[in-house]
Design goal:
The chain has 671 residues and is an alpha+beta fold. The protein is built from 20 helices and 16 strands. The strands form three sheets. The protein has an eleven-stranded mixed beta sheet, with helices on both faces. β13 and β14 form a beta hairpin. α3 packs antiparallel against α5.
Amino acid sequence: MCSYVERRVPGGSKRGAGGRPLPEGKRGWRFWIEQHQLGPRVYFLGRRWHDWHLGALVLAALAVGALAGLVHDSFPTALVVLIGVWLIAKDWRDLTPQRRDTAAWRLGLHRRPHPLRTFRRADPLPLLTALAAAAVATADLISAVTPNVRWRGRTLSHLEAVHELSVFHALAVPVAAVLLTCAYFLYRRRRRALHLAIALLIALALFNLLKGLDFEEALGDLAVAGLLWWGRSSFYVEHEPLERRSALLRVPLIAAGGLLLSFLLVAVAAHNASLDAIVRETGDLLLWQSGPIRFHDELGRLDLAVGLVGIGTLVAAAYLLFRPLAAPRDLPDPKARALARELVREHGHDTLAYFKLRADKRYLFTDDRRAFVGYRVESGVLIVSGEPVGPEDALPTLLSAVARFAEQRGLRVAAVGVGAASKPLFEQLGLRSLYLGDEAIVETGSFSLEGRAIRKVRQSVSRLEKHGYHTSTATVATLEPAVVGEAERAALEWLGETDERGFSMALDADIASHEETLLVLARDAEGELRGLLHLVPAYGRAAVSLSMMRRHPDAPNGMTEYMIVRAIENLRERGIEELSLNFAAFARLLHSPEGVAERLLRRLLQLADSFFQIERLYRCHDKCNPRGEARYLMHEGALNLPRTALATLWVEGQLPKPPPLRRKHPTHARS
């Protein structure tokens, strides 16, 4: 059962598990610890011991004690059982030889380290310390508002006056309240909250000793402070510079405003009281204690109002102090856009690479400016658009920079529209994949209108041509500005009240700024524009991608098929071998579901088709007999999938964003 077995090898030397030689002087039955890249390894009695061994020993000792009548049902017993179960659960990968030595030791569940992301052994610490800080703050609050133990009070009375004891009781209350507020920001990995929490815990330890010789609370405060300092590397979220919005001035102003408002409430309610009584009453009510003044009738719960004012003031000040470093608010400047365009021309072989040039995307470059990603931040998620662009040797460095950028701002990382070839690279970042659907790609050389399977498309094309419809295909750079303007106006007008969709697989409506793209214009017998396709290039391969497909509301049925067929034929003449018809969501689940779960999911997708046009879009693409290339949503674990999915639907325009959460359109940075 143990992963370490001492064995002989040729030459007479002894080796441990995996053939590693045992260090001189540490063979045999001695206790020793090996420093390994996956974490410390403990050897004793000639064997290696895992966490789960210790957990099993704890549970076995409890079982023996219970049989002997030495262990009884109690809270300590339940706590020890939980510790034993936890030690086994956190080390579950080492239970079987197949998974043994694949995960690194951590304070929480052992996990596999990801090559492109910083591994921190104390990563679960923020949650644990947040709970511990909240528990300590609550205990200190209760201790501060309750009388001292009698013998401790008598002992302290020989050292300090009763008035001084009450002062330290009073001081402990606001400090504990601030620590309780810090607990949430510790959970959110805020670095500034870490520093403040350590200072507060040390102060509370001192106050606990001076107000009542409360050694238990003081030791708890110092223990949590030490734990925070030991795991300080796990608090990596940076904060907005205090100078940027003069937060150092705003925090005192907010605090003064809360105090002044509370004082005025008490002064108005107790108009006949002395100034000293009003000040004392205000302080007591802010600490949720009874003061010298009694309020009756409709003012009987003034204490609740003042207490809520104090809480609101504390929360507002905490927001200013602990808000994370914000992602850039301005869109890329012209120099950054020019560099992105150059990199796309040089390395944008993926059919979605050109879509990174959308006007609403922000960019993150490597330090040497050799590679970049396009992204948006929504609902606390940094969503990367498609795959990174750049030489292959620069992409790992780029994704590591993306992870650091997100961590410093408290953001989760996701990527939408990732192809199968780039999926392993994102997995090295610790992201998981979710199949989104297939990119439908038509091979122009093999496409034909012959055959029974495509007869409906053939009939639509013939019918429109008989009515005098015709198409033209040209690059935007070769078209007259009036023609491009006509196409842009028509695209917006035909969209109507529908929101524009697309983020990872569509451009914006500013066609004129993309001179290398293609426009396919369909006109009727009178020359009126009735439909258009906008196609973007893929560099390094003979391919284009569909960015926009519009038709006049009164255009006859079959207009979409007609434009696609004529575009395919024209592209073939231009030497373009592939046309990407963009994206068919969950295509594999729609046409070939496997098992009961996928068939049920297919039914749900069919029901959702009325809202998202999932199956209708797939059927439209399927008429051209394309091949499918899978695309994935990469996300950080199952618990983050709902938030990531919602953020993705918002940025793609598939789900309307609630008005209170809508932001103004970002501005372009000045050059």
